Amino acid sequence: MSQKEIQESLKLLEKDWDVDPILHDFVLGKYTDVTDFSLIVKDVVFHIPYLPKEKKYILWKCYWPDCHNCCDRQGRLPLTSDDLIQIGHGMKYQKTSDFVKEETLVATHDEPTPSGGFSVMTNVSLKRKIDETENDDGTHISCRFLDGEGGCGIHPTRPGVCYMYPFSTWAQNEKGRPRVHATFQFTGDCPGFYLSESLDSMKEVLDDYSTTIYDYNMKSSRTLKDGFGSLSMS
Q1: Other beta carbons within 10 Å of 182
Q2: pTM of the model
Q3: pLDDT over threshold 80, residue 115
């Protein structure tokens, strides 16, 4: 996301939620005194922002059902090969090929890498609206499966990426085995971030997410091998 888009998202967020001034400046890139605290939970390395001056971590909690911005302002819904089968069956399609034809689209986008470069990703994504096109990829669209009470109409077979929020994740090869990393997405859309002197309040959340994040990365890797997408580094 561009800085302008993040700023616009924050303005919308602040209409309904109180945002800590420090977090506001951090999300906009104005707060630079930040270090990366790495915490290994099972097979995932979580990268947690730490503010030395305040002696506090930036942590997260979910405010659902009072907030469902992750569904209202999702940029895309890339699908794994497992998603294609499970969601297709859940939507009563007899053939996965029919589900892919009617309910998905293929789009390519750039994704920043931890090293400061970019990766070019092509994904099969679930349409967030019936008439969504490739030109809509990366834009804020409220998901068509979101109901009036903040629930998901295709839960529990919703896309695996939905279970990842608010984390962004990637895998690296370390000594012949995959090491999965995860960090927060700071898009300005989520009111759940807060400051804390301790990680204790989030340990259970990280433990739960570690399994979800690792499994998703393995499924994403299989999806590329199955030919449902591509990844190249630039």
Answers
A1: 24
A2: 0.91
A3: no
